[in-house]
Please model this.
Amino acid sequence: MRKTLRFDTTRRAFGLAIAASFVVGGVLATAVGAADLPGAGKTVTPCYDATDESLFQTDVIAIGLEKLGYKVKDSIPLNVTPMYLAVASGDATFTASAWDPLQNAFFDKAGGDAKLQHVGVLVAGATQGYFIDKKTAEQYHITSIEQLKDPKIAAIFSDGNTGKAQLIGCPPGWGCERVIEHQLTAYGLRPTVNHVQGDMAVLASDVINRYKEGKPVIYYTYTPLWLSQVLIPGKDVEYLTVPFTSLPDKDDKSVTTLADGRNVGFSINALRVTANTEFLKANPAAKKLFELVTIPVADVNAENYQIYQGEKSLPQIHQHAEKWIADHKAQFDGWLAAAAKSS
Model:
């Protein structure tokens, strides 16, 4: 029996789902008993970045492991740095909420490939950037974050006390705050811009409330996340460009331009399963599953929007994962078949 933990509640326990058969090429290939499954007698412990929005993909992976016979223990909510350290040490087996390359500094500090490894591309096309409400952008002709160097422009987004623009940003310890803090200096914005940090859900809600009140808003966000489902880029808000690419790690060669050529200052990321190296060596079936499972970023955005609309209890999020698997049954069964064969 497994439950996913959260700081304020516990997940309902649900039974171990054992795959009794695998479908290969649409044909029922073979039936196997629970004792013959590659994960039989083995236990895994997921961890995640302590946000509700990361539980969906975590549960998709966990359900797949259960169908391969693994016993999946309680998912552990952790901040980003201890999340990587837990996987590296073996206190946790894997995380399905690793951002590559945004969080690679945390990955390296935890021991790199010798201790933990990125496997597959779970969600491709995770974007980030600075945004401004469309009304203010058009009224003051603001297209670049660099324009906030002008105290008059910055004052538009002030809290009324300091005169500085209040840039609603990134929680401490996530990786994105390193980029924002670096760029405030690189683009000469520190005299006129204040980086507002805190819980991401609270920050995003503040952005929405300000927008609904008709106040100018400037903020950082990323996808997949429900914020861009509420304030739609190109309709309600606009990307801000940056004057040049500047990232915290000097050797980082990440591309920070969108397909249309706009430089938004942040790399396009992939959400990846990151697992303990020793576990991967001993569990080729699990490794193959990690390599194969892919979830379109649009599907993660849609699920995250369900969370925003109130379907955010742990059982509800698990149901989202179950439904996604049911909607992609043939593909998912194929992944399980390939994983089982690799053991």
About this structure: Confidence is low (pLDDT under 50) at residues 7-31. The chain has two domains: 5-121+273-341, 128-240.
